[in-house]
Amino acid sequence: MITIKNYINGELIEAVSKKHLDNYEPATGKVYGLIPDSDSQDVQLAVDAAKKAFAAWSNTGLEERMMLLMKVADGIEKRMDEFVAAESRDNGKTLKLARAVDIPRAVSNFKFYASALQHFASESHQMPGMGVNYTLRQPIGVVGCISPWNLPLYLFSWKIAPALATGNCVVAKPSEVTPYTAYLLSEVCIEAGLPKGVLNIVHGLGGKAGQAIIEHPEIKAISFTGGTETGKKIAATAAPMFKKLSLELGGKNPTIVFADCDFDETVKQTVTASLSNQGEICLCGSRVFVEKSIYEKFKEAFVARVKTLKTGDPQDEKSMMGAIVSKQHKEKILSYIELAQQEGGKILCGGKELKIEGRCAEGYFIEPTVIEGLDYKCRTQQEEIFGPVVTLTPFESEEEVLTMANSVKYGLASSIWTTDLSRAHRVAEKIEAGIVWINCWLLRDLRTPFGGVKASGVGREGGWEAMRFFTEAKNVCIKI
Ligand code: NAD
């Protein structure tokens, strides 16, 4: 059994209540660890430590701050295999994916913001003959970072790194479903010599430990990634307290395939875009719209490729898809597959729970599932499923596909597949989403703004956007 502890004031400690929650391995369905069931008392300890650390940390020289963040990045890199194994075991994602994407990206997040803090600058505005203004960008103080289970360390570090880089002290909570790599990160921070209280990691339930972070009057800003319903609750608590808020929420992303696309490459890439990480990436294209003239050909090739995706033990290097993160989430996904059939959908492949022999006999697996024949307004095509389920829908014109693509309440990401550049630009302009990929998916430059519109969130992360979010602008005006 692995017993995870909170990281508060530079030390690894139990929850004040001494209570624990079970931590499950999704591939086996078995409990393999315990995590602290923290509450407002633990959050208070973390806030006290962060407040104490703030004066020194916010005045630490840029080079020293940069070196410390680099040491954290190096510390993760040195323990790469351990982090990869932990992420795979905790989340159910394949070792292969954790090694290729999750952990290297967490390292990059720390390196990126370590370097960004040395280049971040503020504006000055001259008033000829009268005066000059300069803008200070000051750290906010103690900030809260709350992240989900789908890309655990990747998204946790995407918030923590810019918050620390800009001189804030942090109280952070990873998802209670996937706490393991956040715990390893606390060990790395201790080894790296990060001053006590600068980063505090409190484990526990969203409604208890998370809510205590949101409600705490001395936590001045909240950066949250998770579901839209949780985002609503957080906004309802934090907005009347006038906290700065960044909300990265759910999605139901369209993939738009035109007849003039590079066919083979498009099939290959759109299958990946639909089903990576068992479809448990907020950016996955779960609604694929295909121009009618190539619909049948595309469908055949798409389904044939999906059938080659081997779902199995995440630890098996041959597995291309792993386990669903939890029993509860597995049941939610299966209920949507059932709903899709009630709504008139035809299952082209998959559609069932998968039983795997041996070690994973009690694990949570679902066959990658492709469905056609659904109206774009039905619930299956409007609600976020967040699993290995993708719908195919034909369209006849640009206008029609834009109506369908924009019909959902979400607006996070999208992708367009065409060799007609003018059309790509035209459609990109009209799509209601914070991110548009043209002939690619998940090609990420960490300097670009990242986030969604409509029910997919408020605010942007990435590059200077995150550095601005985690600082307050103060204008200083001098009369000449
Ligand atoms: P979730 O909203 O259930 O939980 C996210 C985090 O919030 C967890 O740490 C949880 O403990 C915490 N939490 C829950 N209730 C809380 C409360 N009342 N106060 C404070 N914290 C609380 O989401 P999830 O199931 O972990 O993640 C899946 C969702 O995240 C999907 O909707 C997905 O689209 C979304 N997501 C969005 C992005 C993005 O960048 N927009 C990225 C990844 C995931």
Summary of the model, kept short:
This protein is an alpha/beta fold. The chain has helices at residues 40-58, 62-78, 80-91, 95-119, 152-165, 180-192, 206-215, 228-238, 263-275, 295-307, 327-342, 379-382, 398-405, 421-430, 463-469, and strands at 2-3, 6-8, 11-13, 20-25, 30-36, 124-127, 131-139, 142-146, 169-173, 199-201, 221-225, 244-248, 253-257, 285-291, 346-349, 369-372, 389-395, 410-411, 413-417, 435-438, 453-454, 457-458, 471-479.
The CATH superfamily of the largest domain is: Aldehyde Dehydrogenase, Chain A, domain 1
Number of strands: 23
Bound molecules: nicotinamide-adenine-dinucleotide
Q: What's the alpha carbon Rg, rounded to whole Å?
A: 23 Å
Strand content: 15-25%
CATH architecture of the largest domain: 3-Layer(aba) Sandwich
Supply the number of structural domains: 2
Spans with pLDDT under 50 lasting ≥5 residues? Answer: none
Characterize the overall form. Answer: globular
Give the strand order of the largest sheet, numbering strands 1, 2, ... along the chain: 15-16-17-14-13-19-20
Give the termini distance in whole angstroms.
68 Å
**What structural class results from the helix and strand content?**
alpha/beta
Which range best describes the helical content: under 10%, 10-25%, 25-40%, 40-55%, 55-70% or over 70%?
A: 40-55%
Regarding quaternary structure, how should these chains be classified? single chain
CATH class of the largest domain: Alpha Beta
Mean pLDDT over the full residue set: 98
- Helix count? 15
Biggest β-sheet description: 7 strands, mixed
> What is the fold-level CATH name, i.e. the topology of the largest domain?
Aldehyde Dehydrogenase, Chain A, domain 1
